[in-house]
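Q: what sequence does this backbone want?
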């Protein structure tokens, strides 16, 4: 009878310990997945938000150079090369746009970026310097005004794209905070399970020892 009792106690102990160990294993799997999600989230912040913001800044700088050339703001500049310089800046902008397009775009981003690209490729391409300046009549103010309006529209697209980076960045950070909080909860759960495991083992061993003594 003594052996039967001890055997039953061992089976109960094994079942309880197995359940607790399985719970710990499941918790570790969930925590591992959570850490992967956190890592992925911060990668997303860098690749699709911070990096994109640098693209927007670089594009804005080149767009400013185009506007200076069109508006004849630099008196010391050799305007015989203006078409070449405008084309160079536009090509650099389009190169950055290609990199921008390879990031994870929201539907809004795709719309603004498409409109911006259209302005650069269709509205701001100047084939003939005579469209904006001639020796006889000077600066063609009406045409320059049209180009300035197009540039203003392009800048608005960039501003809207920049706002999206801020909004999406806040969403990603909020998601990361949720994952971190969840991970902390799981860590507390693990500690609780370990405490329960220790208590169960102690009670089983202690009671088993007491029962055994009583049977002797």
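A:
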């Amino acid at each position: 009878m003594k052996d039967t009792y001890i055997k039953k106690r061992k089976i109960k102990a094994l079942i309880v310990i197995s359940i607790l160990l399985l719970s710990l294993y499941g918790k570790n799997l969930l925590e591992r997945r959570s850490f992967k999600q956190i890592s992925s989230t911060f990668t997303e912040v860098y690749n699709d938000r911070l990096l994109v913001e640098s693209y927007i800044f670089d594009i804005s700088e080149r767009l400013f150079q185009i506007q200076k050339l069109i508006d004849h703001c630099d008196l010391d500049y050799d305007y015989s090369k203006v078409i070449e310089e405008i084309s160079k800046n536009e090509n650099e902008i389009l190169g950055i746009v290609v990199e921008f397009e390879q990031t994870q775009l929201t539907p809004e981003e795709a719309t603004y970026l498409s409109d911006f690209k259209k302005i650069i490729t269709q509205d701001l391409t100047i084939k003939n310097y005579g469209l904006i300046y001639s020796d006889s009549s000077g600066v063609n103010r009406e045409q320059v005004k049209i180009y300035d309006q197009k540039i203003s529209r392009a800048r608005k697209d960039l501003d809207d794209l920049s706002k999206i980076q801020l909004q999406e960045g806040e969403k990603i950070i909020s998601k990361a905070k949720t994952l971190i909080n969840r991970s902390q909860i799981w860590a507390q759960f693990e500690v609780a399970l370990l405490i329960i495991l220790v208590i169960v083992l102690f009670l089983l061993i202690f009671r088993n020892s007491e029962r055994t003594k009583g049977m002797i």
